UniProtKB/TrEMBL annotation:
EC number(s) from the headed UniProt entry: 4.2.1.51
Protein name: prephenate dehydratase
Entry-linked NCBIfam families: PRK11899.1
PANTHER family from the UniProt entry: PREPHENATE DEHYDRATASE P PROTEIN (PTHR21022), PREPHENATE DEHYDRATASE-RELATED (PTHR21022:SF19)
The protein's annotated pathway: Amino-acid biosynthesis; L-phenylalanine biosynthesis; phenylpyruvate from prephenate: step 1/1
Organism of this sequence: Paracoccus acridae
Keywords carried by this UniProt record: Amino-acid biosynthesis, Aromatic amino acid biosynthesis, Lyase, Phenylalanine biosynthesis
ACT domain segment(s): 196-273
Length: 285
């Protein structure tokens, strides 16, 4: 009998945006904070957790470094995606006034996202390894005049007071997460399914061009195509792709059959429903 833990693992401190993604996508599961992405993957492989929550890309900063290298080698399968709007809150010790905060700490990528707010309020900022971790440090060290930029969840967990909400300069910043498990789930769970796969093209002229032709001629929408080196050499390139549809859809089935002809390897990483926010963003765009 397969044992389950009802845990979902994420990278970061409690209150991180990955923690927020876990709450949104799997509210009934216990969370398991991990130090690194590798630790998150290993927690699922070792049955310490049932699922992994991994960020793969951000609408402002692009893909998360190194994550695409880990996914094919992880032995895990994508079973869902989750979009989380990055809402930045300024927090400090209870009783602190906004005008009392002179310096804030946050993860390096959050600081430029709230540059306008910091400038208007005359605040300086320094980078921290983790925004939620900075919130935990402030709650422990209780430094007066110090603030932290993080999620409201971090304030809730660490007993800090939110002084300002949604302070980011642009209100479209969204992070996409993938939920991964030990077993694949190819069931049709939505009218809008996505398929993610990795492949390497054969060493023949125009192989990539020919491989992609099958998706165009069969009317399959490819929402992502990225390349990255493997094995530390320039001549070994692997491609990571997201397409709309289920592998059993006739159009996608034909496109994948054509792709296989021009590739030396092709591995499906997951088949899963599109997050509703994906369609909302498409219509808004």
């Amino acid at each position: 009998m397969t044992t389950t833990t009802n845990r979902i693992a994420f990278q970061g401190e409690p209150g991180a945006y990955s923690h927020e993604a876990c709450r949104k996508a799997r509210p009934g599961m216990e969370v398991l904070p991990c130090r690194t992405f590798e630790d998150v993957i290993e927690a699922v492989r070792s049955h310490e957790a049932d699922l992994a929550m991994l960020p793969v890309e951000n609408s402002t900063y692009g893909r998360v470094a190194d994550i695409h290298h880990m996914l094919p080698e992880s032995g895990l399968h994508i079973i869902d995606e989750a979009f989380v709007r990055v809402r930045i809150a300024l927090m400090s010790l209870p009783g602190t006034r906004l005008e009392d905060v002179r310096h804030v700490r946050a993860h390096l990528v959050l600081i430029p996202q709230a540059r306008g707010f910091l400038t208007r309020h005359g605040m300086t900022a320094s980078a921290s390894a983790d925004s939620a971790g900075a919130a935990a440090d402030l709650a422990r060290d209780r430094m007066p005049g110090e603030g932290v930029m993080a999620s409201e969840l971090a304030a809730e967990i660490h007993g800090l007071e939110v002084l300002a909400r949604d302070i980011e300069d642009h209100h479209h910043n969204t992070t996409r997460f993938l939920i991964m498990g030990r077993q694949p789930d190819y069931n049709r769970r939505s009218d809008r399914m996505l398929t993610t796969f990795v492949f390497r093209v054969r060493n023949i002229p125009a192989a990539l061009y020919k491989a992609m032709g099958g998706f165009a001629t069969n009317g399959v929408n490819m929402t992502k195509l990225e390349s990255y080196m493997v094995d530390g050499v320039f001549t070994a390139t692997q491609f990571y792709a997201d397409v709309e549809g289920h592998p059993e859809d006739p159009a996608l089935q034909r496109a994948l059959d054509e792709l296989r002809y021009f590739t030396s390897s092709l591995d499906i990483l997951g088949v899963y429903p599109a997050d509703p926010l994906r369609e909302a963003q498409r219509q808004a765009g």
